[in-house]
Write a structure and sequence with these properties.
- By secondary structure, the protein is α/β, with parallel strands linked by helices.
- It folds into two domains: 67 residues, OB fold (Dihydrolipoamide Acetyltransferase, E2P) (Beta Barrel); 256 residues, 3-Layer(aba) Sandwich (Rossmann fold).
- 29% of the residues lie in helices and 24% in strands.
- A six-stranded parallel β-sheet has the order 11-10-9-12-8-13, with helices on both faces.
- β2 and β3 form a beta hairpin.
- α4 crosses α11 and α7 runs parallel beside α8.
- The longest helix is centred in the middle third of the chain and has 15 residues.
Length: 371
Amino acid sequence: MITWRNGTVLALGRSWDGSVELTVATQDGERRALAHPGIVGLPEVGDRVLLNVSAQARGLGTGGYALVVALPDRLPADPPDAPGHLVKARYTPLQTMVLGVDEQESAHHEQLREADDLAGLPVVVADLHSALPAVLAGARHAAERAGRPAPRAVYVMTDGGALPAWFSRAVAGLREAGWIEACVTVGQAFGGDLEAVTVHTGLLAARHVLDADLVVVAQGPGNLGTGTRWGFSGVAAGEAVNAAGVLGGRPVASLRVSGADPRERHLGISHHSLTAYGRVALRPATIPVPVAGADEPGRAALLARVGEQVDALLAPRGLHHRVDVPTGPEVRRALERCPVGLSTMGRNLDQDPESFLAAAAAGIHAGSLPA
């Protein structure tokens, strides 16, 4: 089940919060590798490393990395005694123990013990991690347009993709730029500024501990899909709508849209969004639909398809509410000012603009709501 390699660190590359890139020599050539020092310690040139190359060998979505499992000749020191008994990545060899924001040893336990209400907090739910910066760009654009301060935004990262939040360069860059106040990792995900057991406690922590006035919920980098109706990690987007609704938040369902994906099931609105919001979500949400300007005829056909797909999604139950959001050139300019790179399924803003404009539409709508 795991493809292993021994290697020697030849060079250190880029680093960001919680991660460092390496060049590693193995018996079958040099490999691009990634280490999380919070798990394995900080590698140095010349260190022997144990690598998991399973996904890299199959060309799957680890960013092209082999992953450092251990520095077997130079293990990190035992961590200092500290509170916390919440185990994540449970019963795997790299399970890690963290302090949950909601557990008994936390300073916030009493604050969260009976917490049960988000008090109308806008919660944008998205399928892909790549939607995060675009949603925030839209929300900040809405605030700027209204003459209001940028929202105090918190990212709640679910465990459908990468488990370590450290894997995400976007989270590190958005935090550094002040676009997110914090990252809360929930479920089996870990490495956020706060740790929580469930999406529900993550949302409550965002509201009551971090004083968020906007939350974005999405999986970490990576996405699992099998080409079947139900076999994809984005199903959790529908469950996140339910969590936000149950807790008295205002769910905003960000659509996964593409005008460049060659697969019919992802053209226009992806079947992932149609299933998650049309079948899994049992609480009402607002669905922002991007609308082109009158001087953008090139977008008309795709966005007409998107509109028809949304109407078909709404028709059976009438549960959700559609809102049309103009996404003209000024929204494109807002996306271009994003402090981190925009990339989805290997495509950038120029190659698949509607992916990011649809996410920005969700942010614009959420950013226009009172917190």
